[in-house]
Amino acid sequence: MHAKTALLSAAVVAGIALLAASSRSGSETTPAGAATGFAAGRSATAPAPRADAARAHRAVQAMQLAVGSRRESDLLAASTSPEQAAASPAAQRARRLLETVAADAVHRTQADGFVARDVMIDRDGTEHVRMERSYRGLAVVGGDLVVHSRNGELLSVTQGDNMRSFGRPSIEPKLSAEQAGIEAGGAFDGTVAAIAPARLVIFARGTEPTLAWQVDVEGDRRNDPAPGLISYYLDARNGELLQEDDRVHSAAANGTGRTLTLGNVGLVSNSISGGYTLTDPTRGNGQTLDARNQTGTSAATAFNDADNVWGNNATSDRASAAADAHYGVAATFDYFKNVHGRNGIFNDGRGVKSYVHYGPTNLVNAYWTGSAMVYGDGDGVTYRPLVALDVAGHEMAHGVTGATARLGYYNIKDSGGLNESTSDIFGTLVEYSVGNANDPGDYLLGEEVYINNPGNTKALRLMFKQDADGRSFSCYPSGGFTASLTYQNGKYDPHLSSGVGNRFFYLLAEGAVTPKGFSYTPAQLVCNGDTTIAGIGRAKAGAIWYRALTRYFVSSTTYPQARTGTLQAAADLYGSTSAEYKAVARAWSAVSVN
């Protein structure tokens, strides 16, 4: 079989020779720029990196070199699976640091264990090792952290507000696994299809480490077409529900080829006997399927075609929505690879499945399920199918977040808003990266899903003034968002609290400048009266956010901790006295995160 390629450009691979040489002989040839370390444009007064190119290359043997990434990404190599990360020399060094100089900082006890899930190595040899914690063999939920080191010396540890204690619980449960399953099934609002066997964990999100049962429940929600995939954490002493962790992340909080939104675009499909199928072999065999308007994917069918022309620019052909989704996923894959050196959601080169025509025919939403993307058809009156380019980028970015920081979603203070904001940010950057005349880049999420939208001023979210919807937040409230109110459709639902991160990113990239088509004053775009903020551009802002997400954010990161993480990312890339660093600080202050 061979791929049928068209207008979507392939990634520009800028390091093939180096990769080939390293694969053949374990060569320690220094890549271009490795000796200088940080990206061009960093402050001349920033401290010089202590690069050790030979050592860096030894550390990245068998890892994926970040070929094709922009120089600004500062990434040399990264692990491609948790297994590879755990077996790497960098992980061994990080564990030794956690056993010695970093032990007190992370409140390590003798029975604590640490396993690497992800390793990223910068061009100057700095190693960022993302660790999952265990206690006496039980996973610690909320105990994840990142160890940052260079030349074997600890630089810092990034962690959330959890695990601030040396106290650990007894691991003998009083509640049985069977009873935990019954309790979890009873808590599910809908019809239960399957309950996974309960497993003991240490639960430490916003509470003292507590022995808990984790029970994963799958089923059909009551009065909600979203896939039902929920993890319940129950106190193993008395069955008290500690947290309900919804694993499905949606694109719209308010319920909301020949494509529907982009005109005629080029797609990559695959040849099969008698024609073609919507599978992209150039991007890890990502596939787009027809869910046939079922609230599930088991009955989904492939899109096959005889002439390799998909859709008719209208909803009368089911392949039109598929063309939008397929193109959007390909564009997102290319963005992360070309800009950040990330080879797919999980950095393993594999594509994911996308299901269009999901759920009832009037479903105004799209979702990331943890392993796939699903798109509703809209109501046909106000909304068309939710397959717009930035929505596709948004959903795929949820996958990147899940593979890296794993920012918590519902019921976890600020991290759900940061999770949603991350997807809005990268969905926006994907839209800009394509430059399609029918859907030019902007800071409006999902404006193309509206059937009637003169001037394109309606959107699911306005990143620069999300509170224009009357519910969202653009300014961080005093004391932050309360975890107990971050449930779905709650006062601090992640789709509402994301407005703080979205405005921060807009101000960082563009400054306090009113977007075209809107009449807001600069004072209405900031929370502190600082109307003279100048943007540093989307490329630099995106590089800072991606670096913070993949190096410094953890599952329970708060907005103030995100400020710290992005400042560190800016210092890494441009220096702590640079204009970029100062712009990050100023933009966070402008959304009341200090």
UniProtKB/TrEMBL annotation:
Which keywords belong to this entry? Answer: Hydrolase, Metal-binding, Metalloprotease, Protease, Secreted, Signal, Zinc, Zymogen
InterPro entries (alphabetical)? FTP_domain (IPR011096), Peptidase_M4 (IPR023612), Peptidase_M4/M1_CTD_sf (IPR027268), Peptidase_M4_C_domain (IPR001570), Peptidase_M4_domain (IPR013856), Zinc_Metalloprotease_M4 (IPR050728)
Domain (FTP): residue spans on this chain: 112-158
Q: Which Pfam families match?
A: FTP, Peptidase_M4, Peptidase_M4_C
Which cofactors are required for activity?
Zn(2+)
Question: What family name appears in the similarity comment?
Answer: Belongs to the peptidase M4 family.
Protein name per UniProt = Neutral metalloproteinase
